[in-house]
Design the sequence.
């Protein structure tokens, strides 16, 4: 038995003993995904966290995800093996910068991408994820929208809804933004028979030449259901690992080796084992903040 297999065995025993529900994002290391009760993208994980019956939720992801779980299901204890794993995009927007935008555009509704802190959610009218951003922005009763923090997702949504006016905050995911048109063209040249699937956090010129643009779950679902056999994946490496593991009859290539989120890769099996054993890394926040942030998340879940 390998060291990883032994750790996984220990984690599964501890999970059973504690009654914990382990949630993991698709960008987590594959061995972490294998320990989880449920693996999903931000939206699916938020839904699972909200519906969780277990008193203990162990969240393997980055901090805003653990926060969302606590906001949506406050009576549960939410712990993270790496509470220090942040999201660089979420950290780009501050409450004072958002308030400045709100003062500049007083008639605009604020839509915040779920990749944001509890404080930003509390300042927003509604949340969205990459899988429902168009639907959320379409559904809200406002012609003007302040979209934070991802300028690329915001621009993607704005192009789909030309009848609304968007004010985009200049934030971005450094992992996806790093991908250039040249990277994408080179990958297409190397693998001419492969379909190009990308995340809307990529730059517009990359999104424009893709065969499919969608959320992490959307990319996985589309690739699994497609008749095509080869794919260039323009999102984080964890998705390629997962698709390769569960679809041995198909070939998946990462668009560029730059597509690795160091924060998502921070959680190790040892961290997860220790967290289950000692129950450290609890996520908590003042009730007033939680209630305000809940409103934005809950409105999204109802759409
Ligand atoms: S991939 Fe980008 S958006 Fe996702 S957690 Fe990492 S830095 Fe944040």
Sequence:
């Amino acid at each position: 038995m390998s060291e990883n297999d032994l750790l996984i065995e220990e984690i599964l025993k501890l999970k059973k003993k504690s009654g914990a529900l382990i949630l993991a994002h698709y960008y987590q290391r594959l061995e972490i995904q294998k320990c989880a009760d449920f693996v999903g993208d931000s939206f699916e994980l938020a839904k699972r966290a909200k519906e969780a019956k277990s008193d203990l939720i162990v969240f393997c992801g980055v901090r805003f995800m653990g926060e969302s779980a606590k906001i949506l299901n406050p009576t549960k204890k939410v712990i993270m093996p790496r509470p220090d794993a942040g999201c660089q995009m979420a950290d780009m927007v501050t409450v004072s910068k958002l308030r400045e935008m709100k003062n500049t555009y007083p008639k605009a509704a604020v839509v915040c991408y779920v990749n944001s802190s509890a404080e930003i959610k509390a300042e927003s009218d509604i949340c969205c994820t990459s899988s429902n951003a168009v639907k959320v922005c379409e559904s809200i009763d406002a012609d003007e929208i302040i979209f934070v923090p991802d300028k690329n997702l915001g621009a993607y949504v704005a192009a789909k809804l030309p009848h609304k006016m968007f004010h985009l905050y200049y934030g971005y995911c450094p992992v996806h933004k790093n991908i250039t048109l040249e990277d994408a063209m080179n990958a297409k040249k190397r693998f001419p028979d492969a379909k190009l699937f990308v995340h809307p956090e990529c730059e517009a010129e990359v999104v424009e030449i893709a065969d499919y643009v969608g959320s992490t779950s959307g990319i996985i679902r589309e690739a699994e259901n497609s008749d095509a056999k080869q794919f260039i994946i323009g999102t984080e490496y964890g998705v390629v690992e997962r698709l390769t593991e569960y679809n041995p009859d198909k070939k998946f290539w990462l668009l560029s080796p730059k597509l690795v989120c160091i924060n998502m890769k921070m959680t190790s099996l040892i961290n997860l084992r220790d967290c289950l054993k000692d129950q450290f890394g609890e996520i908590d926040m003042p009730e007033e903040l939680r209630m305000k942030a809940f409103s934005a998340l809950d409105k999204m879940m109802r759409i």
The radius of gyration is 19 Å.
